[in-house]
């Protein structure tokens, strides 16, 4: 499969849309990959995607075309991401979860249940010599905080990076699952914890970006491979004036729109990066883009489902979703199998390019904060910690620097505390000794 597949989906008209505009729709199919879109000014434009799922498409077809190739890759050690994008009420959660992950009828089952079944089927059919471990996590990004949906007490988790997992959510609950039924039960538990609200457009609107993360490790003799699969059900973009959001709902919508525009900026930067020389990709501008960093830019196969309403009443929002999908189609990343050697090569490449190309730039920009020795120390610490960063990005270097210094400071604080305890203990022993001497 190409490393990025972008599809458009038009859900059936809902009753409100039908009562406003009858059966009229703003699209006219050309074939299974292209269509004519009529905007609110009746202007027509043609769109083309890897596949278009028109109203009445089967959930199974979306799975076969969009998701199955991604999970095949994950089992071979190539990371994968399946993302649903679109306006509130456009059908993202329905495509991902179906009416329910556990007991939907076969026809309505969403991507998630099908992915879980498909994953365990591939594992079952593989040779018996290979040992598989599947771990599952579920998080949501709500108001820019990462919450663990398996343990709500963890409500502000940090995103970190290491050489085994790439980008990961530090301290997140990981559930080891051995079959499909067990995985779906866990997922259903996590889904019950999601932040859901009501918008004018959707009675059960997702107010957070939800991520279902599968970490699949396989071991054959001495070779270890691992693949990460992230399914992302994004919160819907909405126009505040249209949905008449107020108070908390308005604050939520602002945060959602902000992180979705950060996603748009990353996609724009990646599109430019694939056309010209790599430039700065602003992954760190939001939690969403940071978690998706290695899914969008690097060693990954990504499937994007752009969900739209077919109704003329939502034409401006659908148009913006379709434009987003069209831009995303131009990203060119090259997936690679996550073998350990590969990671080491990547690390060496990044570190050497950092040392050779960026030292002067970093020094110049961070002049007040760091001197040459600091930069050298940073490089050494980064090698030890296995931290990756974009060598052309002053912000990323700065953030890596802060990461390392805060860790160094906390380990120094620990040492100081231990020293104080030792000194106190010695003082006490000394007093006892002195008292004993006095008595004699
Ligand atoms: N393909 C479909 N077939 C039938 N009903 C659908 C379909 N897609 C969506 N719906 C219905 O439309 C409504 C809104 O869908 P959904 O909750 O998936 O929207 P969403 O894109 O996740 O919105 P939000 O961003 O607000 O979370 C739901 O009631 C859902 O059942
Ligand atoms: Mg939703």
Structure description:
The chain has 440 residues and is an alpha/beta fold. It has two domains: 4-328, Kinesin motor domain (Kinesin); 354-440. The protein has helices spanning 15-21, 59-75, 92-97, 111-125, 180-192, 240-243, 247-275, 287-291, 293-296, 315-328, 340-365, 372-385, 394-439, and strands at residues 4-10, 27-29, 34-38, 44-48, 51-53, 79-86, 131-142, 145-148, 158-162, 166-170, 175-177, 196-197, 205-206, 209-220, 223-233, 300-308. A hairpin with a 2-residue loop joins strand 14 and strand 15. The radius of gyration is 25 Å and the shape is elongated. Residues 92-93, 206, 233 line the site of magnesium ion (MG). Belongs to the TRAFAC class myosin-kinesin ATPase superfamily. Kinesin family. KIN-1 subfamily. Residues 409-436 form a coiled coil. Keywords: ATP-binding, Coiled coil, Microtubule, Motor protein, Nucleotide-binding.
């Amino acid at each position: 499969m190409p490393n990025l597949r972008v599809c458009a989906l038009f859900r059936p008209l809902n009753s409100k849309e039908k009562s406003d505009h009858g059966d009229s729709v703003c699209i006219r199919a050309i074939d299974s990959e292209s269509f004519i879109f009529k905007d609110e000014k009746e202007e027509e434009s043609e769109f083309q995607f890897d596949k278009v799922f028109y109203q009445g498409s089967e959930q199974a077809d979306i799975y076969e075309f969009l998701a199955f190739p991604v999970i095949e890759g994950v089992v071979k050690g190539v990371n994968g991401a399946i993302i649903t994008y679109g306006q509130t009420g456009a059908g993202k959660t329905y495509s991902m979860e179906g009416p329910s992950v556990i007991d939907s009828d076969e026809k309505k089952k969403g991507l998630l249940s099908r992915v879980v079944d498909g994953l365990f089927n591939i594992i079952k059919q593989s040779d018996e010599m290979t040992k598989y471990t599947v771990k599952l996590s579920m998080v949501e990004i709500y108001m820019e905080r990462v919450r663990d949906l398996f343990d709500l007490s963890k409500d502000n988790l940090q995103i970190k990076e290491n050489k085994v997992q790439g980008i990961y959510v530090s301290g997140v609950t990981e559930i080891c699952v051995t079959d499909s039924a067990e995985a779906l039960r866990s997922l259903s538990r996590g889904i019950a914890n999601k932040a859901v609200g009501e918008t004018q457009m959707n009675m059960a609107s997702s107010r957070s970006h939800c991520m279902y993360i599968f970490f699949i490790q396989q071991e054959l003799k001495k070779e270890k491979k691992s693949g990460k699969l992230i399914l992302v059900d994004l919160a819907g973009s909405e126009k505040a004036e249209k949905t008449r959001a107020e108070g908390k709902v308005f604050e939520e919508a602002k945060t959602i729109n902000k992180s979705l525009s950060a996603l748009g900026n990353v996609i724009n930067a990646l599109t430019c990066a694939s056309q010209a020389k790599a430039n700065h990709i602003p992954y760190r501008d939001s939690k969403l883009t940071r978690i998706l960093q290695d899914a969008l830019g690097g060693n990954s196969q990504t499937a994007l489902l752009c969900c739209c309403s077919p109704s003329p009443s939502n034409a401006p929002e659908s148009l913006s979703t379709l434009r987003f999908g069209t831009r995303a189609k131009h990203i060119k990343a090259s997936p690679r199998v996550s073998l350990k050697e590969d990671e080491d090569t990547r690390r060496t490449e990044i570190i050497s390019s950092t040392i050779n190309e960026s030292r002067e730039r970093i020094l110049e920009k961070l002049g007040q904060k760091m001197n040459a020795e600091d930069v050298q120390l940073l490089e050494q610490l980064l090698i030890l910690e296995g931290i990756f960063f974009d060598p052309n990005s002053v912000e990323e270097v700065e953030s890596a620097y802060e990461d390392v210094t805060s860790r160094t400071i906390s380990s120094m604080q620990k040492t100081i505390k231990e020293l104080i305890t030792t000194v106190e203990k010695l003082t006490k022993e000394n007093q006892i000794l002195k008292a004993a001497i006095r008595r004699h």
